Amino acid sequence: MHKSEPLDRVLVEGIVAGNYEAFTLLYHRHKHVVYSFIMKLSHGNCYMAEEIVQETFIKLWEVRKKVLPDYSIRKYLQVISKNLFLKAVSRQISEELIESKIAEKNMHAENYVDDTVELDFLLEEIERIIGLLSPAKQLVYRLKHIENLSQKEIAKKLNISENTVETHLKQSTKIMQMKLRHYFSRAGPPLSVFLSFLLLNIK
User: Fold this and answer.
1) d(CA 4, CA 10)
2) Could you tell me the domains of the chain?
3) pLDDT confidence of residue 68
4) Can you say how many angstroms the Cα of residue 147 is from the centroid of all Cα atoms in its chain?
């Protein structure tokens, strides 16, 4: 488990107790970390990074009573901001689908419905595929891609070798890519972009 820094622990304890001043101090202490993290994920989209920074800390305040003071607040913020980033990408694709289909006039409106349904189905399919992984692979996969732990950290947490962690991740990646690649043949440009992002980020 990632240990909290002493000052962060004090601030988080204050936030859990509903101290807004502690929350403000934590925000100014870590907002640049979240901003840099999202800038990296979004390939330099400063507007998206600024928006997600605000949403991340709003979400932190909403779930403050569930935050563990002993756990690294940076890891909490990374998990929250990464999930918000993925939702933002999905939302952006949906908006682009709307704009593109309106431009193609009413005669192509039914295609937008198909693409939107396909996107929803794809997101459900990704969750389903993760659920098909063996318990061990699924645990390693989620620790890597949801909690953003390194292979070394995962090995220590699960008391297994780094080679075992690497094997689980390679096998999981192969399964995910194999299950998702067939969507490329029938996905339009927006969905193809989304799929490319996913396949590049499940390694």
Assistant:
1) 9
2) 1-88 (1.10.1740.10), 116-203 (1.10.10.10)
3) 86
4) 9
